[in-house]
Amino acid sequence: MPRPAKAPADPTPTTPAKSAPQKALEKLGLVRPIDLALHIPLRYEDETQIALLKDCREGDQAQIEGEVTACEVAYRPRRQLLVTLEDGTDTCTLRFFNFYPSQQKQLAVGQRIRARGELRGGMFGWQMLHPVCKSAGGALPTALTPVYPTVAGLPQPYLRRAVLSGLEHAARIGALDDTLPTAALEAPGTAALWSLQRALSFLHYPSPDVSVAQLEDRSHPAWQRLKLEELLAQQLSQLQSKRERDALRAPVLQARCQGLRDQLLAAIPFSLTAAQQRVGSEIAHDIAQPIPMHRLLQGDVGSGKTVVAALAAAVCMDAGHQCALMAPTEILAEQHFRKLIGWLEPLGIQVAWLTGSQKTKERREMLALIASGQAGLVVGTHAVIQDKVQFHRLALAIIDEQHRFGVKQRLALREKMVSQPVDAPNLKINRPPALQNIAGAAIKNEADDFDRAPSMEPHLLMMTATPIPRTLAMSYYADLDVSTIDELPPGRTPIVTKVVSDARRGEVVQRIRAQIDAGRQVYWVCPLIEESEALDLTNATQTHEELSSALQGTVLLAAIGGKSQRQPIMVGLLHSRMLPADKKAVMAQFTSGQMQVLVSTTVIEVGVDVPNASLMVIEHAERFGLSQLHQLRGRVGRGAAASACVLMYGTGDSGKLGENARARLKVMAQSNDGFEIAKQDLEIRGPGEFLGARQSGAALLRFADLTTDTQLLHTARQLAPLMLDQHKDLTEKHIARWLGGRVDYLKA
After folding, report:
1. Cα–Cα dist 593/570, whole Å
2. 49-140 with 260-485: one CATH topology?
3. Which of 22, 120, 561, 607 is the most interior residue, by most CB within 10 Å?
4. Left if phi > 0, otherwise alpha if psi is -120 to 50, otherwise beta: which for 547?
5. Which one of 3.20.20.10, 2.40.160.180, 3.40.50.2000, 2.40.50.140 gives the CATH number of domain 49-140?
6. Mapping DSSP to helix (H, G, I), strand (E, B) and coil, where does residue 462 land?
7. Which residues contact 670 (CB under 8 A, 6 or more apart)?
8. Contact in structure between 254 and 288 (CB atoms under 8 Å)
9. Rounded-to-integer distance, Cα 569 and Cα 415, Å
């Protein structure tokens, strides 16, 4: 019987499966040889010498060598492996609570081994708990042993071999060649810099005689070279991005005499502060240019950023274009929507509203208004960037609390803004009759220009109530123009901040009752919605029940006709898991004054404006960051009444408040200045956490410290334009080395 023919071999080669360590390397982002070379050790262990037990002291990290004289498994007080090691001068007990049979074999009586760990003294002599052990013999290392940041499935020996291989490979292919021009290396302050290759080789395997203090505080020349390289890459990428953007075209949006902007200024019931006028002029100048604005508007809580943004939107709409304002939460977006409708609808401007919770019919109507151009201004949440949203002539986008949006979300809005050619006669911006004759011809001419440049870029205004310290503005925001509102409108009352222990909770409740009796309203903020096993914090639901019970009573209210009536105190609950309609109803009750106390999570951090609220209680304040505490505190003091913020802290199992938490609360009690608070916040948290790494999910500065490396930052800022102008090839190589493909965030 003939044998069956063999199936033809698959001509497509199969990719070998990746091992667990290879997958772990990718998880750490260690893909290229240069990635491995730049994976710097967390700390070092000294295996270059053997210590004698007779010369050691309590707490020493020591490596000892000797013969195993005893090895047994004990069961009291718990199962453990006890090994006695004798080095000729004394004995040491090696104690293992977790061990394997292979370890027992390695540590059998008669074996000669080396053990490294922390020495502990006691009535039973020297001990080491879970030391690192290996067979004795062989030459001692000549450099300190690096200990790298790692993840599960990636043991240190494997990682050390991978890093060494990557370092050698990077050197062979020229990835470690100098990218700093000779002139830069000869500049004052840089002459003592090591080469990058020398610096990396040293940091991976430093000689045992190096100053450990210099390695730990990163002041060693090897660290200085690394930090300058990193800062320079950041400055180069941002300056390059800014220059590329400046080469693009954008609609020219000019304010017209007696136009919509002037009408809005006349309609608002207050005068602009000098700071608002200044930043308003900076923005107006930018959007009147044929290059896209990319500006960050920063101002403390309550400084009046919204009206400045509204004035810019008025200029945009007056020129016949659309404007979009995107906020991170529905509460904040609705706050803007209500304000802007009140200001703009009397002037004949139609404002559209977009959120994810809208009913289908309302949403369909809003989308039609936006697509036709009848809606001159669009206000909403992330719904603004969804695929179904099609703008007619979007020329300006405003992103509030921009640090709360990820880079992908901001890029999506930017792509929405890329203008499409339209027919000028079909432009349907709803304009008041008084403006039609004034601006009609100008709009027609500009529309013609707009149509001839379909690739025109939009203008982008980002706003934040988290002030950016100067060093951050010089580094993380070097590609942006920054406007700062550095004064508050008149009439804002100073907020008194008190720090109290949770043990004084009863006193705080009495303070709430006094505020209610005076006709005021109160916020009570909790960090959690439900019980958490990880954090023993009182949740919002429980607090709501407790306050409702504690405040049972009445509140005296003025009634129509000169009489007074008494009604029960209303305590409301607000958190992010509630249905949008329920959240809206609760906020409406509190805003109208019908509700006296609002228990909430941090959903009210921004966007809530209730002038009658005069007391803010923040429970477990030690769990919040400084920026968040300052934002929450800014919800009170918005009216004429004296206002206070109570930061109530718990001490946990230890009975003591942690050092960092104590420092944060002290800063809050001493300052109402958002810029000073932001500076302190940066020092406590570092730039990556402070900014969310500019919301890209990956920190751009791994090595440099903006609080201590200001001089290196200045040097990098001076070198960046020199390299871009005179050494473009070195510039591209330098950016690729340090950032790879992580520069897209700059486009948002």
Report:
1. 10
2. no
3. 607
4. alpha
5. 2.40.50.140
6. strand
7. none
8. yes
9. 49
Phi and psi torsions of 491, nearest 5°: 95, -10
Cis upstream peptide for 8 (omega within 30°): no
Report yes or no: 231 and 716 within 8 Å, Cβ to Cβ: yes
| pLDDT per position as a tens digit, 524-562 | 998 865 555 445 456 788 888 889 888 876 666 544 445
Backbone angles phi, psi at 392, to 5 degrees: -85, -50
- Residue 572 CA to residue 544 CA, distance in Å, equals 7
Query: 392-408 pLDDT, tens per residue?
Result: 888 998 988 765 555 56
Note the pLDDT tens digit of each residue in 200-229. Answer: 999 999 998 898 888 888 989 999 999 999
User: Options 3.30.950.10, 3.40.50.300, 3.40.50.620, 3.20.20.370; which CATH number does 260-485 get?
Assistant: 3.40.50.300
Q: For residues 286 and 295, is the Cβ–Cβ distance under 8 A? A: yes
The per-residue pLDDT for range 308-356, each reduced to its tens digit, is: 999 999 999 999 999 999 988 887 888 888 889 999 999 999 999 998 8
Q: Where are the domains of the chain?
A: 49-140, 260-485, 495-671
Tokens, residue 607:
């966007």
- 271-276-280 Cα angle (round to 5): 115
- Residue 113 phi/psi, 5° resolution? -135, 165
Burial of 173 (0-12, 13-18, 19+ CB in 10 A): exposed
* 3-class state of residue 490 by DSSP: coil
d(CA 630, CA 195) in angstroms, rounded, equals: 44
* pLDDT tens column, 224-277: 999 999 999 989 988 988 888 888 888 999 988 888 999 999 999 889 999 999
- As a whole number of angstroms, the distance between CA 399 and CA 417 comes to 13
CATH no. for 495-671: 3.40.50.300
pLDDT beyond 80 at 651: no
